[in-house]
């Protein structure tokens, strides 16, 4: 450890300990891009809702947070991790979409007075599910959920936008309804790092809460971005590219194909759920939790197709 590193450790280490906050573990996957790997699981009291990949990007002027985790406590731990890396202010807190495991840490950054950034459709989506999300969070996490709340965006993106962190520009982009109707990606031009949010699931089964058709369209465009580094919403950081995208695309394409065929044969939704894609079970974590829901969602979407 260099003298400077020791000095920093004493400075930030003590400050962290004094406030009783444990810093979230983060990995610098590319220069200035720090990511935390969430647990491959649903939210439980044991993992404290820390199930999504979250992180931050550091410029010469300020810091942008990308997703804040599943609880206020996780958001605070992420903030402590930022303080262990830099004293620069947090100027942006970006939410890649509405899901609880990505947004409930937002309140930890309120005193930093950042812009809270999200898709133009994020606020409405959060508002429509707020009561359900709060109830589920308290039921699933108990005391670990204390103080968690929804902090809606103060700055919205519709199509594309850029954020200047000083010497580092982030390009934000919104997408056709896919994982949800408010998906947003973040691309760090300087390092070629793409933060996909839940438009990319690796190893953990993709969850359709928007449109399987839209998602397949988005994947074709994401493929063209050809990033050098990738932070998926769930699963290993910086996975092989494009193989990780290939696996997700194959699952969703097979899902759409098989559901269309079932509808064409006149099967009921129940018959479709009981037969489609069950041989995928060993390919994905959390399969039992989400696969049947995906078939149900795809059926509801595709039965209205011409
Ligand atoms: Zn999600």
From TrEMBL:
Keywords: Signal. Residues 51-234 form the Metallo-beta-lactamase domain. It comes from the Bacteria. Coiled coil: none annotated. SMART domains: Lactamase_B (SM00849). Residues 1-20 form the signal peptide. GO terms for biological process: antibiotic catabolic process. The keyword Signal applies. InterPro entries: Metallo-B-lactamas, NDM-1-like, RibonucZ/Hydroxyglut_hydro, SoxH-rel_PQQ_2. Belongs to the metallo-beta-lactamase superfamily. Class-B beta-lactamase family. This is Beta-lactamase domain-containing protein. It comes from Caballeronia pedi.
């Amino acid at each position: 450890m260099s003298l400077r590193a020791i000095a920093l450790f004493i400075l930030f280490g003590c400050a962290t300990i004094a406030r009783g906050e444990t810093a979230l573990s983060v990995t610098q996957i590319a220069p200035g891009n720090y990511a935390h790997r969430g647990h491959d699981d649903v939210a439980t009291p044991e993992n404290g809702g820390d199930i999504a990949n979250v992180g931050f990007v550091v410029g010469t002027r300020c810091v942008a947070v990308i997703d804040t985790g599943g609880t206020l406590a996780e958001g605070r731990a992420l903030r402590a991790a930022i303080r262990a890396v830099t004293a620069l202010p947090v100027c942006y807190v970006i939410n890649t979409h509405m899901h609880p495991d990505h947004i409930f840490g937002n309140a930890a950054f309120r005193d930093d007075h950042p812009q809270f950034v999200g898709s133009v459709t994020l606020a409405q989506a959060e508002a429509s599910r707020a009561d359900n999300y709060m109830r589920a969070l308290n039921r699933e996490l108990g005391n670990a959920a204390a103080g968690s709340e929804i902090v809606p965006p103060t700055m919205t993106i519709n199509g594309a936008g850029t954020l200047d962190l000083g010497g580092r520009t982030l390009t934000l982009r919104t997408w056709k309804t896919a994982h949800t109707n408010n998906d947003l990606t973040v691309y760090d031009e300087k390092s070629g790092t793409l933060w996909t949010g839940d438009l990319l699931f690796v190893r953990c089964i993709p969850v359709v809460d928007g449109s399987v058709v839209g998602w397949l369209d988005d994947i074709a465009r994401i493929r063209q971005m050809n990033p050098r580094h990738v932070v998926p919403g769930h699963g290993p950081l910086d996975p092989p590219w494009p193989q990780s995208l290939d696996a997700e695309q194959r699952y969703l394409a097979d899902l759409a194909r098989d559901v269309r065929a079932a509808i064409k044969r006149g099967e009921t939704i129940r018959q479709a759920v009981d037969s489609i894609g069950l041989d995928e079970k060993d390919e994905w974590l959390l399969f039992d939790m989400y696969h049947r829901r995906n078939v149900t969602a795809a059926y509801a979407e595709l039965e209205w197709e011409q």
